[in-house]
C-alpha cells in the first residue's frame, strides 16, 4: 500500500510526524492510500485510538483527507503546495486566459501617487510609535464602508485580502476548527485554511452566492467561521443579491457566535451594489483589497469589523510586521482622492467582455456563469480533457481543480485579455471542448 515507506511511531504525535516526513520527502505521494486504522495500529503495536488521533491531526493540518469507509489518503495537493501549481504550461502561440490578472490597460499609473506619497514622507516621515493606520486612509475607508451599508467599526490595514483573512481567522479560531467556504471558491483561501490547521467545509454556490440551506448545514455541523465573497466571486463571478443577503442574514442570526468574514475584493471593478451580511454576527470582518482596481503589486487591503476582532488583528500585527508601509497607505489615499480609477468605466469594460462571452457560450449551447468581475466559470463533464482540447485550440484556461473541493469539474476563463474579436473564437473553442453540462448551482 505504501510502497517502500514505513510509518513509525508509538504516540500520535510521532506517527503523524512520520507521515509528514514521508509526504515531505516524496516517498508518500499525493493521493497515496494510507493503511486502515486497525491495520496500522496492529503493525505498530499501539491502540487504534492512537492512530485515530494521529490521522485526525494530519487531517486538521491539511496533510491527509479522509472519506469514511474509502479510507484516508495523502491530500492531492498538501497545504504546503499552492493550488496555483495546478495549472497548465502555456506554449508559444497559445493565448493565456487562465492567470486571473486584471487588464493592465485598466490600471492607473502609480507615478503621481507614489511621488505624492514620497513628498509627504519627506515632510513627515513615519516613525516608530506612529498610528498603524493613517488618519486619512481610515477616514476615506470608513466613509466608503458607511456608504455601502457596512456597520460601524474600526479600520485596520493589511498586506492584501488573504493576509487580512488569515489574521481574522487566527484571531478567533484554533487548529481543528471548521470553516465554511464557497465551493468552488478562491484557491488561495482553500490552501490557507488547512495551512492554519483548520478544516474547510464546502458550501455550494450559485450565481447569487452561497446557498442558505448549505450554509445552515455547515453551521449546524459545527463550522465556527464562514467566508463569503460579496461580489466578483472567484472563480464563478457570483454576486450576493439583496434577497440572498437577507436569507443568509437570517441563517447567521441563528448562529450569532459564528465568525463572519466578507471578502469584497471586487470593490472598484464591479457595478453591482454591495449587500453586506454583517449585523447579525457578534464577530465579523469585511475586507477590501486594492489589487484588482489598482494593481496586484499594491499590497494593501482595508478591513473593518467588530472592535474585538479588529483589536486582535492590530495587536498581533504589531508583533509581526508592525504596520503596512505608510508610503503605500498615502499612495492609496492619493489614488482615492484623485479619482485615478473610473470605477464605472472599469466595471463596464470587464462587464462587456464577460457578458459577451457568456452570451456567446450560451448561444452555442454551452453553460457559463459570470455575473460580476473578470472571470467566467464553465462547467465541463471532463476537466482534464477540456483543458487539453482548449490548449490544442490555442487557449490556456485555468483547471477547475484549483478552485474545487467537492463540486463538479469546470474551467475558469479570465476575460481581462480578451478583445471583441476574441469572443467568437474562444467561445467556439470552449463550446467544442466542453460539451453539455448541467446548469444552475455549481454542484
Strand content: 5-15%
Secondary-structure-based class equals alpha/beta
Please give the alpha-carbon distance between the first and last residues.
32 Å
Query: Can you summarize the main beta sheet?
Result: 8 strands, mixed
Helix coverage percent of residues? 40-55%
Q: How is the topology of this model organized?
A:
Layout: H1 12-25, H2 37-44, H3 48-60, E1 64-66, E2 72-74, E3 95-96, H4 111-123, H5 135-147, E4 155-158, H6 161-172, E5 178-183, H7 187-195, E6 199-206, E7 209-210, H8 212-220, E8 225-229, H9 242-253, E9 259-263, E10 284-289, H10 291-294, E11 301-305, H11 307-318, H12 326-338, H13 343-363, E12 375-379, H14 383-392, E13 395-396, E14 398-399, E15 410-414, H15 420-434
Parallel strand pairs: 3-13, 5-6, 5-8, 8-9, 9-10
Antiparallel strand pairs: 1-2, 4-11, 6-7, 10-11, 12-15, 14-15
Structure description:
With 443 residues, the protein is an alpha/beta fold. It contains 15 helices and 15 strands. The strands form four sheets. Strands 4-11-10-9-8-5-6-7 form an eight-stranded mixed sheet, sandwiched between helices. A three-stranded antiparallel sheet has the order 12-15-14, with helices on one face. A two-stranded antiparallel ribbon has the order 1-2. α1 (12-25) packs across α3 (48-60) and α2 packs across α3 (48-60). The two termini are 32 Å apart.
Amino acid at each position: 500500500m505504501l510502497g517502500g515507506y514505513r510509518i513509525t511511531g508509538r504516540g500520535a504525535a510521532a506517527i503523524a510526524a512520520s507521515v509528514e516526513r514521508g509526504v515531505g520527502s516524496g516517498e508518500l505521494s499525493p493521493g497515496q492510500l494510507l493503511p486502515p486504522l486497525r491495520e496500522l495500529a496492529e503493525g505498530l503495536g499501539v491502540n487504534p485510538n492512537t492512530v485515530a488521533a494521529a490521522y485526525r491531526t494530519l487531517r486538521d493540518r491539511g496533510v491527509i483527507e479522509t472519506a469514511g469507509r474509502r479510507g484516508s489518503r495523502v491530500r492531492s495537493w498538501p497545504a504546503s503546495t499552492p493550488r496555483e501549481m495546478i495549472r497548465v504550461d502555456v506554449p508559444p502561440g497559445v493565448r493565456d486566459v487562465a492567470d486571473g490578472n486584471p487588464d493592465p490597460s485598466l490600471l492607473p499609473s502609480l507615478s503621481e501617487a507614489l511621488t505624492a506619497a514620497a513628498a509627504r514622507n519627506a515632510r513627515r516621515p513615519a516613525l516608530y510609535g506612529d498610528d498603524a493606520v493613517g488618519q486619512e486612509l481610515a477616514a476615506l475607508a470608513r466613509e466608503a464602508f458607511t456608504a455601502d451599508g457596512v456597520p460601524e467599526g474600526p479600520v485596520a490595514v493589511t498586506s492584501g485580502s488573504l493576509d487580512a483573512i488569515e489574521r481574522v481567522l487566527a484571531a478567533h479560531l484554533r487548529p481543528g476548527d471548521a470553516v465554511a467556504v464557497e465551493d468552488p471558491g478562491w484557491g488561495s483561501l482553500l490552501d490557507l485554511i488547512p495551512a492554519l490547521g483548520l478544516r474547510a467545509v464546502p458550501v455550494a454556490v450559485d450565481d447569487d452566492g452561497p446557498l442558505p440551506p448549505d450554509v445552515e448545514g455547515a453551521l449546524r455541523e459545527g463550522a465556527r467561521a464562514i467566508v463569503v465573497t460579496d461580489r466578483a466571486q472567484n472563480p464563478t463571478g457570483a454576486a450576493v443579491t439583496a434577497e440572498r443577503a437577507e436569507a443568509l442574514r437570517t441563517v447567521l442570526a441563528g448562529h450569532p457566535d459564528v465568525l463572519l468574514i466578507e471578502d469584497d475584493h471586487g470593490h472598484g471593478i464591479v457595478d453591482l451594489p454591495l449587500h453586506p451580511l454583517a449585523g447579525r454576527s457578534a464577530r465579523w470582518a469585511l475586507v477590501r483589497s486594492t489589487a484588482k482596481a489598482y494593481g496586484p503589486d499594491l499590497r494593501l487591503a482595508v478591513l473593518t469589523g467588530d472592535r474585538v476582532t479588529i483589536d486582535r488583528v492590530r495587536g498581533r500585527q504589531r508583533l509581526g510586521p508592525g504596520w503596512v508601509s505608510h508610503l503605500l497607505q498615502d499612495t492609496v489615499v492619493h489614488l482615492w482622492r484623485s479619482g485615478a480609477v473610473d470605477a464605472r468605466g472599469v466595471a463596464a469594460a470587464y462587464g462587456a467582455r464577460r457578458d459577451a462571452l457568456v452570451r456567446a457560450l450560451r448561444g452555442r449551447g454551452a453553460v457559463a456563469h459570470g455575473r460580476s468581475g473578470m472571470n467566467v466559470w464553465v462547467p465541463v463533464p471532463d476537466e482534464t480533457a477540456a483543458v487539453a482540447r482548449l490548449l490544442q485550440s490555442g487557449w490556456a484556461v485555468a483547471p477547475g481543480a484549483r478552485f474545487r473541493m467537492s463540486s463538479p469539474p469546470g474551467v475558469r476563463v479570465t476575460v481581462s485579455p480578451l478583445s471583441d474579436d476574441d469572443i467568437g473564437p474562444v467561445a467556439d473553442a470552449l463550446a467544442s471542448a466542453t460539451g453539455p453540462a448541467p446548469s444552475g448551482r455549481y454542484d
